[in-house]
Design a protein that fits this description.
Elements (H helix, E strand, L loop, with lengths): L2 H25 L20 H12 L7 H15 L39
Helix pairs in contact: 2-3
Length: 120
């Protein structure tokens, strides 16, 4: 087969597939949602943390200096991170105390002597 008729055949097949897909999509009927009430969450009692956040939001920059806003933001952060405020944070314990030689920052190194190549 020559190149030109093969290209025409490919174009005709492509158009036929596109028309078929369009016809199928147009005849398809959307199914109504089974229960639209399940998608809506019923409002529960107002969250005092949310109320405090809204108040601090309205304060603007003054909220950064307000002690109550700082407490609300800390509680919100802890809730987001999943931290328990009633339990004091524990510091991680080292397995064994590091000796001064193990610490690369405080380790003393021998002074580097200049190379002889630069003295020629």
């Amino acid at each position: 087969m020559d190149g030109k008729p093969l290209a025409r055949l490919g174009a005709v097949i492509f158009v036929a597939i596109a028309v078929t897909a369009t016809a199928i999509e147009m005849t398809r009927q959307d199914e109504p949602p089974a229960n639209s009430a399940t998608s809506m969450v019923a409002p529960s009692a107002p969250d005092p943390l949310r109320v405090g956040q809204r108040r601090c939001q309205r304060l603007g920059e003054a909220g950064a200096r307000d002690a109550e806003c700082l407490r609300v933001w800390a509680e919100s952060r802890d809730r987001f991170l999943g931290l328990d405020r009633k339990q004091p944070p524990t510091a991680p314990q080292a397995a064994s105390p590091a000796t001064p030689n193990d610490d690369p920052i405080t380790k003393q190194t021998a002074p580097v002597e200049p190379s002889m190549a630069g003295e020629r």
